[in-house]
Amino acid sequence: MPELLFQVDSFTDRLFAGNPAGVCVLTTPKDDDWMVAVAREMNLSETAFLLPMEGGDSSLRWFTPLREVSLCGHATLAAAHILWQQGLLPVDRQAVFETKSGTLTADREAGGWIALNFPARQVVSAEPPQGLMKAIGAQHVQFVGRYRNSNLIEVAGESDVRAVAPDFSALLQVDVRSVIVTARSVNPAYDFVSRYFAPAVGVNEDPVTGAAHCALATYWGDKLGKSEMTAYQASARGGLLRVRPKGERVVLLGQAVTVFAGELQV
């Protein structure tokens, strides 16, 4: 039986927006080199490799064109969408994924929304690593924080977020995995906006980043005093999320649409 391969636009309700993810439904386990090769062929920020297991749960791993990553929101959203759309999981059943970030779940909600339950990332104030501020080129910086091996930078306004134009060659020399630049939104439809840069893992700018919102949800939830917020990632493609910080967990909500489906001839 061939492996099925899909491309899904995540965190959007229309084609050619949001963040495209590959989803490969495996019939048998594959080695890491094979999965990297498929991810490189897809040439997307991440491709999810989904292996359904006995009992209805699935093993889930994520690869960029360069390497494996430990957590990826938009590709998890895409994987859950494919499980239900392709009849691999009953539409009224929760999707359960065993991953390198522990057990993750996805549930269907009204209006085509999918709710992902992810680990929260706490942001703490920190001095930026050497060379970061020059490489990122952000103006009117209000706060610099760190979570895990990434940095979050709050700037004064949405226009400052949209104006950021990093020097990616310089950013590659900085000791940081990824950088979020964020601000409150001037649009009343959104609570905050962000952009996400991660050239260290082969993604100069990610269109919409679920994992980044594990940090953004806790950061803005504390700052705004809200238990649910709407977020917009202001990349060229753009993407919409709803977030619910819940202590050590975060619920990320998004929609997804399938762009194409095929079979791997390998």
Describe what this molecule looks like in 3D.
This protein has 266 residues and is α+β, with helices and mostly antiparallel strands. It folds into 2 domains: 127 residues, Diaminopimelate Epimerase, Chain A, domain 1 (Roll); 124 residues, Diaminopimelate Epimerase, Chain A, domain 1, CATH 3.10.310. 20% of the residues lie in helices and 41% in strands. The protein has an 18-stranded mixed beta sheet that branches. Strand 12 and strand 13 form a beta hairpin. The protein is globular, with a radius of gyration of 18 Å. It starts with a strand and ends with a strand.
Number of helices: 6
Fraction of residues in β-strands: 35-45%
Q: Which CATH architecture of the largest domain?
A: Roll
Shape: globular
Number of domains: 2
Helix content: 10-25%
CATH superfamily of the largest domain: Diaminopimelate Epimerase, Chain A, domain 1
Secondary-structure content class: alpha+beta
Task: Encode the helix/strand succession as letters.
Answer: EEHEEEHEEEEHEEHHEEEHEEEE
The major β-sheet equals: 18 strands, mixed
* CATH topology-level fold name of the largest domain: Diaminopimelate Epimerase, Chain A, domain 1
State Rg: 18 Å
Task: Give a topology summary.
Layout: E1 4-10, E2 19-25, H1 32-42, E3 47-52, E4 58-63, E5 68-69, H2 73-85, E6 95-99, E7 102-109, E8 113-119, E9 124-125, H3 132-136, E10 141-147, E11 150-155, H4 158-163, H5 168-171, E12 178-184, E13 192-198, E14 203-206, H6 212-224, E15 229-233, E16 239-246, E17 249-254, E18 256-263
Parallel strand pairs: 2-3, 4-6, 11-12, 13-15
Antiparallel strand pairs: 1-2, 1-18, 3-4, 4-5, 6-7, 7-8, 8-17, 9-10, 10-11, 12-13, 13-14, 15-16, 16-17
